[in-house]
Specification:
By secondary structure, the chain is an alpha+beta fold. The protein has six helices and twelve strands. The strands form four sheets. It has a four-stranded antiparallel β-sheet, with no helix packed on it. A hairpin with a 5-residue loop joins β10 and β11. 28% of the residues are buried.
Amino acid sequence: MKWSVKALMTKAHPSFGPVASQRGGVLIEFAFLSLVFYVLVALVVDIGRMVFAAQVLQDAARVAARELALVPLPAAMTFEQALEDPTVLAQVFDPALLVIDLDTFGDDDVAFQAFLDQLPMVNKMLRPLMIFEQAEIQGSSRRLLRFPGALLNDPSAPSGLGVGIPRVESRGADGVEAIRWVPVLEEITNGSFSLVPLDPENPPPQRGLVAVRINYPFQAAMLSGFQQGPGGPFEPNLDNRIQADDESVDDSINAPPRGTPFGVGDLPEVGVYGGRFGLGGQLAFGGETLRPYRKLLSAQAISRREVFL
């Protein structure tokens, strides 16, 4: 009697039987490997965004310091007063233009491009970091091009909206955040801008310097935030996911530099920069809403003012 190799193998080892007996094996293997592939893709995309944002911020900070140093402003003017000067607002930086309402342009691409061309220098430098968002604000749908952060109610801005950046000062054991509001563009050392000390008895160590910092809240689109375990950075922390709970956020440390936060429910809670504080929310298994991975990026630059006394 003649036996084929397949018949002999099947007779000796039933596991070499029909292919149908191994059905689902590839699916199980893919289930194990897909998680690793997803993490690798998420790391490449989000870390790449972080590196790109850091480079744009540093270039923008250099431009901000150089341009502010060249504007002919009074020697005794403070940094805060300089940011309100009409020349600075028109040529260097205008915080009211960090949110652009696209609905005002309709489908007129020419008018929109002309508007972008007239933006102040630093606003132009920050444009690659601005995000498109179609948000439901107080029940009204609006198309926005804006700088990342928390959307604020700012009637003085052309769009009626402003941007504030929440810096997480502390986080409780349950993940509840205490935040401090910081502006997009701020002075590094208070009082160094003015050439004339406000307090002659305690003058700053350096005067006549444009020392600026630009803040950018990087929040991952595909990575959730976890708190470090009590045993250190090498302890598993899968159970320390940061829950998104805007109602419990403590924002009593200070007020936003520009505008006021919206109320609970006025903005969508889910999104990379969702919620009234812009801390974001990601839907997870089990119906949970988690915070995205977050890191506040800051770039600094210093230039000496060119002022004739």
